[in-house]
Amino acid sequence: MTMIIKYANIISIEFIIREFLLKKVFNSVILIFSFLIPLLTISCSNTQESKLVYTENNTIKQNVKEREQDITWTMELEGERLTKKINRGSMQLGSDVPYTKDLYKISKTYQRPVYPSIEDFGSLDTRDLRVSVKEKVNTFCTAFASEGHIGADSYFSKKYIFNYVFFLKDFEEGWIKYFGKLKTNKSSPFKKWLFGEPFNGPDFIQIPVRFYADCGTIDMTMFLNSSGNNEFYQITIDRWQKYDGTRQTDRN
Fold first, then answer.
1. In a domain, 90, yes or no
2. How far apart are CA 187 and CA 147, in angstroms?
3. Fewer Cβ atoms within 10 Å of its own Cβ: the N or the C terminal residue of the chain?
4. Beta bridge pairs of residue 200
5. How confident is the model at residue 205 (pLDDT cuts 50, 70, 90)?
6. Please, how many CA atoms are within 13 Å of residue 161, restricted to the half-sphere of its CB?
7. What is the pLDDT of residue 41?
8. Residue 110 falls within a domain, yes or no?
């Protein structure tokens, strides 16, 4: 009898546990569905909205096509020119078009640099004049333009120092002959000087130089050795010009 009672109790407990578990599962299922239903509703509404937008876009596109067919178009002007690819690097200007600085800015073609020139002297393009040579000629001109030409003879090759003596004699005599007055050694005879386009030979460098004085200008040509220390070996005086008021008179 005792065994029967225990078995009945066990069955009763097992039934209660099953019923409890079933209730938990049922509640969980209900909770999951309560979350899924709103999501499904939103998804369906979005799908419906996107279909409407798609239909609307198709309608607008169709309306545009229909309106485009109703428009009367004119004949295409310069169709070949408009479809042709234009190379800005080969821009050609007509002979009647003045070439201005604005056109130079937009033109992609290679433009050769333009250097100033003096009509009776020549080009001032000194690109071919090496920096070291230019500095040496400039320091010589500074020495030659000083009071008494102090130190100018040191730039000449000792082998050709006599050429400097002849050059200095021609310079002193020419000053009196062409400028009509004595040159004083108490002040610099020149205010400034400039270099012209050089000639670079295999054995020598030829550089034109113009000196500016208060009474006129003197054009000279300086010859330097192209190798070694680029020593001077000759200077020739090419032209004297005296200022007559605002006019220059060639006295050579």
1. no
2. 5
3. N
4. 205
5. very high
6. 7
7. 59
8. no
Give the Cβ contact number of residue 237 at 10 Å.
Answer: 16
Quote the mean pLDDT of the chain: 76
Range of the domain at 43: 1-73
In one letter, which amino acid is 135?
A: E
For the chain, strand residue ranges (E) read 117-118, 122-123, 192-195, 199-200, 204-212, 216-225, 232-244, 247-250
Q: Cα(198)–Cα(128) distance, rounded to whole angstroms? A: 7
Please say which residue of 73, 104, 133 terminates a domain: 73
Distance CA 219, CA 216 (A): 10
Which residue from 225, 226, 192 is spatially nearest to 209, judged by alpha carbons?
192
Q: What is the pLDDT of residue 47?
A: 47
Is the pTM above the cut of 0.70?
Answer: no
Task: Give Cα 237 to chain centroid, integer Å.
Answer: 42
How would you label 99-134 residue by residue, b for 16+ Cβ within 10 Å and e otherwise? Answer: eeeeeeeeeeeeeeeeeeeeeebeeebbeebeeebe
